[in-house]
Amino acid sequence: MGCFWFSRHKSGVEPSEADGELSVTEKVKIYKYKEIRQATDDFNALNKIGEGGFGSVYKGHLKDGKVAAIKVLSAESRQGVKEFLTEINVISEIQHENLVKLYGCCVEGNHRILVYNYLENNSLDKTLLAGGYTRSGLQFDWSTRANICVGVAKGLAFLHEEVQPHIIHRDIKASNILLDKDLSPKISDFGLARLMPPNMTHVSTCVAGTIGYLAPEYAARGQLTRKADVYSFGVLLMEIVSGRSNKNTRSPTEYQYLLERAWELYERNELVDLVDIALGGVFDAEEACRYLRIGLLCTQDSPQLRPTMSIVVKLLTEEKDIDTKKITKPGLISDFMDMKVREPVETKTEEVNRCNYTNPSSYNVSPSSRTSDNSNGYSSGASSTNAVYSLSITN
């Protein structure tokens, strides 16, 4: 990667890149590379807390006393500058108790570094979905899980309905939900975020995100609306309640896909069987089943039938009742088993980074596959688990 100059702009959150110049909002603090090196003890391996396709994450101590998570994007990474700029500009303009806080960034030469607030308890996929208390030492009782679900829903509702223009995250998943010392959730990784212009029903874009969380209409046609995030949240909601990932190849075939299993149990009026056995039976069965029904509402095949995130918050907090008659069959992962990832067409590097980037290790990947990523939820842009895909559907 070549060197880039750095400048500021005042014209909203949309990133720009021209003539090798990086442009970011004036609200972003600029750190010198020397300061970042000092904060991480010269990027000491003992301070590394995560690693992914984008580069590495280090725990650092800044001069002002703040503890930070420092994302160092690899200079050899095939990720584009656009994803880097998107994350800076989107997250710097907004603040919410359920979103990560960006302290600033560093751009010197070919160094691209993001500095976030450090969150003590890692991400949901590395804790709850990796064995919960047994492996992480954290206790995810029912009250904690319910608070996480509501917190993520409130964060998404804020992005979808309160921020102007509205923001679609595009990569809601367990690894992008970080937990602070009190296990309160923070939505992270805005590298794939898109703005929803006023008076537009959808944005046509290249498919990006993580297979397993992708809404059917978005995966098949590239039509992006806020309802794609709602679908992803529905999958995440079921993962939190069940304590299992949306796909588990170690389970018997009929139990591998979480959405399929949930629908089967719903039709038999046995949803309670999906609740995590690690809870030891200590949970509110009625509330847990209500959460699973909300998950089904969010993952319905038709985006028009899915609720908005503000309605989801009301359903979770019982400010609004669920109309079970409106629950229809979800868009199931198995319906896209023939989905394949095309190798990128020969094009300029800039275009590959923005639209046609495909992780070389994930060619011909089916929706059932997930590449392990130790990114600690601070990943940015198209890493090994959230590549931007060019998809084809075969019969």
TrEMBL record:
Superkingdom of origin organism: Eukaryota
Family stated for the protein in its record: Belongs to the protein kinase superfamily.
Region (Disordered): 347-383
Entry keywords, A to Z: ATP-binding, Kinase, Nucleotide-binding, Serine/threonine-protein kinase, Transferase
This protein's encoding gene: A09p074570.1_BraROA
PROSITE patterns hit by this protein: PROTEIN_KINASE_ATP, PROTEIN_KINASE_DOM, PROTEIN_KINASE_ST
Domain Protein kinase: 43-322
Name the record gives this protein: Protein kinase domain-containing protein
Matching InterPro entries: CR_Ser/Thr_kinase (IPR052059), Kinase-like_dom_sf (IPR011009), Prot_kinase_dom (IPR000719), Protein_kinase_ATP_BS (IPR017441), Ser-Thr/Tyr_kinase_cat_dom (IPR001245), Ser/Thr_kinase_AS (IPR008271)
Gene3D superfamilies for the chain: Phosphorylase Kinase, domain 1 (3.30.200.20), Transferase(Phosphotransferase) domain 1 (1.10.510.10)
Organism, scientific name: Brassica rapa subsp. trilocularis
Pfam families in the record: PK_Tyr_Ser-Thr
Residues binding ATP: 71
Biased composition (Polar residues): 355-383
